[in-house]
């Protein structure tokens, strides 16, 4: 939502025509951007391209979700004017679907809009003798660079100049990009001192597109050849250090004789040198994007946030990454809180308890060699690659603690099972089931967790079919009815494969 807060301030200074171009009423009304700000900023819009016809079904699903969210917000809105307006917009979108409107247009409009237009310190200065009014932020990022960048890896970024039609004709305008550290980002009024990194292919020409009326510079095949790091404080790691790309040029406006310098910086980026650092770098970016304040000093973030904000971020990240409409539920939320706070017996509300950056991704979980984020990201990656449909259909219970597990299964018939994410290793899913104990009673057992490697060899559906002594998915769904769509032609019996029961 931080992007929209900044953009909503910037568009106050833009001409009506420019705002209308950013938020075309027929495709992407500004009301949608406003009321769905947080959800929009958590989606993967960069994956879409108008020319990719095969993406239409995915785009249609996102548009369906947008309409549903709009309708929900409208019904809950106490302001009757807003409520009627949002309902009208949602009806227009439904009609667009019914008349086979190209729904990729909606996603293209989103990408073109300020989802990616974000500037911490875009500066443009004109003398009083030049009789023009210019917004403070006239240079914006249309396509942000990746926020985790590995050295030697190629990437692209696009910068847009909102006053392109006012650029004086003649010599091409060349934009230059350079990488700056946090201290330099705080002192943009002065010329950056030491060069903290070497960028390859760091210049681009500002080009005006007459059909779209946009003026952009696209940096292609850019890469960071080397990076100079600042002295680290205390236990700070290299994946916590933030940089940014600074874009600058001198530009002449029609009617003004003197060229003027304009500059802006990108969203913060973390630079890594090895793929193993990607997970921790992503944690830094997630914390920054989710909890940074508007108009902050670059790149200050709070050290602690309420759990309710942390959970909202985790849920948004999970659903966006897995590309599902199935949210984490209240049971998942409570177990995640118990996990991060190390309070397995706490039954009250965690909402207002403060969670720290250290608890999120610096301190390892008790008795484990990994942090909370490393564990959560492993589950998210497993679900994205192997369990998306199972999760989206509500077949996976997900995050659940041992106490809650025993509570809900203790009175169920033998053979009842549920699917839960492993809390003892990264990226695992296990089957918890009720079985007969040696004394004639019941006990709850867990199969050794299946990892990505296991599921690449044999799918979860086939593994469930293999195990004959699990018969009903909790609470009482016959497994062959629920999972038959996931069975392949390769049917085996439990005796054919070894499924290890994990005793705890």
From TrEMBL:
It is found in: Cytoplasm; Nucleus. Residues 391-504 form the SH2 domain. One of its GO terms (molecular function) is DNA-binding transcription activator activity, RNA polymerase II-specific. Its main location: cytoplasm. The keyword Cell cycle does not apply. Keywords: Activator, Cytoplasm, DNA-binding, Nucleus, Phosphoprotein, SH2 domain, Transcription, Transcription regulation. InterPro entries: p53-like_TF_DNA-bd_sf (IPR008967), SH2 (IPR000980), SH2_dom_sf (IPR036860), STAT (IPR001217), STAT_linker (IPR048988), STAT_N_sf (IPR036535), STAT_TF_DNA-bd (IPR013801), STAT_TF_DNA-bd_N (IPR012345). GO terms for cellular component: cytoplasm; nucleus. Pfam families: SH2 (PF00017), STAT_bind (PF02864), STAT_int (PF02865), STAT_linker (PF21354). One of its GO terms (biological process) is cell surface receptor signaling pathway. SUPFAM superfamilies: p53-like transcription factors (SSF49417), SH2 domain (SSF55550), Transcription factor STAT-4 N-domain (SSF48092). Belongs to the transcription factor STAT family. PANTHER family: SIGNAL TRANSDUCER AND ACTIVATOR OF TRANSCRIPTION. This is Signal transducer and activator of transcription 6, interleukin-4 induced. It comes from Dicentrarchus labrax (European seabass).
């Amino acid at each position: 939502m931080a992007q929209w807060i900044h953009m909503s301030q910037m568009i106050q200074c833009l001409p009506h025509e420019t705002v209308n171009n950013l938020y075309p009423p027929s495709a992407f009304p500004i009301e949608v951007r406003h009321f769905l700000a947080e959800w929009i900023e958590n989606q993967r819009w960069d994956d879409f391209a108008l020319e990719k016809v095969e993406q239409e079904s995915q785009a249609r699903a996102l548009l369906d979700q947008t309409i549903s969210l709009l309708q929900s917000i409208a019904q809950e809105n106490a302001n009757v004017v807003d409520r009627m307006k949002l309902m009208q917009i949602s009806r227009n979108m439904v009609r667009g679907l019914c008349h086979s409107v190209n729904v990729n247009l909606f996603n293209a409009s989103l990408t073109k809009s300020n989802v990616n237009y974000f500037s911490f310190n875009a500066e443009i200065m004109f003398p009083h003798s030049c009789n023009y009014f210019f917004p403070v932020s006239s240079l914006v990022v249309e396509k942000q660079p990746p926020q985790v960048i590995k050295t030697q890896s190629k990437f692209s970024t696009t910068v847009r100049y909102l006053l392109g039609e006012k650029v004086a004709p003649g010599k091409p305008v060349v934009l230059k990009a350079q990488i700056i550290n946090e201290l330099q980002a705080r002192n943009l009024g002065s010329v950056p001192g030491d060069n903290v990194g070497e960028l390859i292919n760091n210049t681009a020409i500002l080009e005006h597109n007459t059909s779209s009326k946009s003026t952009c510079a696209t940096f292609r095949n850019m890469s960071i050849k080397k990076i100079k790091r600042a002295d680290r404080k205390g236990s700070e790691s290299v994946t916590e250090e933030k940089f940014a790309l600074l874009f600058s040029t001198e530009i002449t406006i029609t009617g003004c004789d003197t060229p003027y310098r304009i500059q802006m910086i990108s969203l913060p980026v973390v630079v890594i040198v090895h793929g193993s650092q990607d997970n921790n770098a992503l944690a830094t970016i997630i914390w920054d994007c989710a909890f940074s304040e508007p108009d902050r000093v670059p790149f200050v973030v709070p050290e602690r946030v309420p759990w309710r904000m942390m959970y909202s971020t985790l849920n948004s990240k999970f659903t966006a990454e897995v590309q599902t409409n199935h949210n984490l539920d209240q049971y998942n939320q409570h177990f995640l809180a118990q996990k991060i706070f190390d309070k397995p017996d706490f039954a009250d509300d965690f909402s207002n308890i403060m969670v720290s950056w250290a608890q999120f991704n610096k301190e390892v979980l008790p008795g484990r060699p990994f942090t909370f984020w490393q564990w959560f990201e492993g589950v998210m990656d497993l679900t994205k690659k192997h369990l998306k449909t199972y999760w989206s259909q509500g077949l996976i219970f997900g995050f659940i603690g041992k106490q809650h597990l025993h509570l809900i299964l203790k009175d169920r018939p033998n053979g009842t099972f549920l699917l839960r994410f492993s809390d003892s290793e990264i990226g695992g899913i296990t089957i918890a089931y009720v079985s007969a104990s040696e004394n004639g009673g019941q006990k709850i057992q867990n199969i050794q967790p299946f990892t990505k490697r296991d599921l690449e060899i044999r799918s979860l559906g086939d593994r469930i079919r293999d195990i004959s002594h699990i018969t009903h998915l909790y609470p009482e769904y016959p497994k062959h009815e629920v999972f038959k769509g996931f069975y392949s032609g390769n049917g085996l019996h439990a005796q054919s494969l070894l499924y290890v029961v994990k005793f705890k």
